[in-house]
Amino acid sequence: MDEQIRVLLVDDQPLLRMGFRLILEGEEDILVAGEAADGLDALTQTATLKPHVVLMDVRMPKMDGIEATERIAKQYPDTKIIILTTFDLDEYAFSGLQAGASAFLLKDVAPEELVHAVRLVASGDAVVAPRVTARLLETYVRNGGKANAGPATEAPRDPLLDDLTPREQEVLRALAEGLSNAEIAHRFFLSEATVKTHVRRILTKLHLRDRVQAVVYAYETGLVIPSQGLDY
Description:
globular; alpha/beta; Arc Repressor Mutant, subunit A; disordered C terminus; five-stranded parallel β-sheet; Rossmann fold; about 50% helix; 10 helices
């Protein structure tokens, strides 16, 4: 994008917001447009500032980050949300992805990884479902969305899958593995431009907002079976 990436920082810990601000404000292409200390304030700030990316904490007063994520995703579909978690297999991270977040980061993320993630998510054509996200998804989908639950019942097949061509279903499975466009192109002997077209059509046909929602969808509908095809 030509303009600066506008970021909204949402966390009830001022020191954490300050740390993220110091990191992001060192980049010429990123602008910290505002801060919020709870989910309600995040909604107000999003409506006013129209940020490209929201860095969203989960555990906050007044309204938690999951509900705030869901509302922002529905009301402001152009705004991308990155969930901030303490552990990479945090149950709240999975809930955040289900609610409409485009990615999640650990709170102790390295500065360069934070900047990279903001740029990727803002671009709208990013690999926002790396293998650690696939691992998170397969863990919670296998357990029915709960950390210590028994095996989940088999998911019903979504009729929308029938709208996908066989190639689009292959690409969707590859997305669920966390593969980049380049990796998908290499696997299926396609150009990256063709892969981008397939991904765009998949999102349109399944009414999904971005790649990570496609990954969540693939697991929740049983198109991808947990523990198959994942390379950690």
